[in-house]
Amino acid sequence: MNKEQFGAFVTERRKEMNLTQRELAEMLRISDKAVSKWERGLSFPDITILEPLAEILSVSLTELVEGRIMEIEEKIDKKEVDDMLQRAMDLNNAKLEKEAEYHRFTRVCAIISIIIASMAECSVLLFLKDVNWFVISLHLPTVLFLIYFFGIYFWVVAKEKLPGYYDEKKVKEYRDGSFSMNMPGVTFNNNNWKPILKALRLWSMIVALIYPLITILMDRFIKFEGFWAFSLFIPTFGALFSCFIPLHHAAKKYESA
Q1: Residues carrying CATH 1.10.260.40, the chain
Q2: For residue 235, with 0-12 CB atoms within 10 Å meaning exposed, 13-18 middle and 19 or more buried, which class applies?
Q3: Band (206; pLDDT cuts 50, 70, 90)
Q4: Chain-centre distance for alpha carbon 219
Q5: Strands annotated E in 27-157
Q6: Residue ranges of the alpha helices (H) in the chain?
Q7: What is the Cα–Cα distance from 224 to 207, expressed in whole angstroms?
Q8: Could you tell me the end-to-end alpha-carbon distance of the chain, in angstroms, rounded to an integer?
Q9: Are 23 and 88 contacting, i.e. CB atoms less than 8 angstroms apart?
Q10: Superfamily of domain 3-77
Q11: CA distance to 115, 152, 253, per residue, from 191 (Å)
């Protein structure tokens, strides 16, 4: 498959379909920069893109790969090639789906293990002597619930890839249904999204295990009573707002990677 010939063919067919690069990119859920690279002969699309691209451009897979419209006789002769390409894509899609399911399963196991370990830690620590159960019970369950909630979202629910428009525009707010996330000076795109997810997953794991320990040990040595009761907010706010540190670092470091 020749890059220049492929790019010229895509350009020709796109224009015949009265589509702009952006419109084609939106239909494929990718960035228009990727389409531009194809048409300039700088790169090929991923194999998973070939089938929907061929459908949009109203050509066969063989015609798309060879970069030209074939005669009827050629199309009959090339049917085996089309079938071969289709099987290759089916196998690739099945492999990608299987890998995605496997990674999802491991993430589910990971967050369940973190929650169990955190709750087990709390159960052990609360049996220490001189722990102010009343004060601890006002904060510990609420904060842990929030940590577990965000942990489950980042480990299991959050999408691994952002829509193409995140790459086209400087999007400062990540939105997924009713869940949204933004931070001054941070933009989200597919360059930094996976590092952000990794950073926030690591944050949820560390905080879920360290927060109960710090809170209960502080109560044992400081005593959350009277004026010192306000010191309970130190680990509480530290646990909740510390997520912005890894988020900001990962977002800025990989923003233009």
Answers
A1: 3-77
A2: buried
A3: very high
A4: 38
A5: none
A6: 3-16, 21-28, 32-39, 47-56, 61-66, 72-77, 79-125, 133-152, 165-168, 193-222, 233-241, 244-253
A7: 21
A8: 28
A9: no
A10: lambda repressor-like DNA-binding domains (1.10.260.40)
A11: 30, 23, 10
| DSSP E strands, the chain | 173-176, 179-182
| Contacts of residue 47, Cβ cutoff 8 Å, sequence gap at least 6 | 88, 89, 92
Largest CA distance in the chain: 90
Query: Which residues, listed in sequence order, are joined to residue 179 by a DSSP beta bridge?
Result: 176
Residue-level pLDDT at 205:
92
Give the list of residues 6+ apart from residue 205 with CB closer than 8 angstroms, or none. Answer: 110, 114, 151
Neighbours of 20 (CB within 10 A): 12
Tokens of 123: 């159960």
Question: What average pLDDT does the segment 154-158 reach?
Answer: 91
Structure tokens at 219: 């109560």
Per-residue tokens: 82: 């089309």
Bridge partners, 180 (sequence order): 175
pLDDT digits (tens, 9 = 90+) for 85-135: 666 566 566 666 777 777 888 889 988 999 999 888 877 776 765 666 666
Distance CA 86, CA 101 (A): 22
What's the rounded Cα separation, in Å, for the pair 62 and 68? Answer: 9
70-to-28, 76, 110 alpha-carbon distances in Å: 24, 10, 52
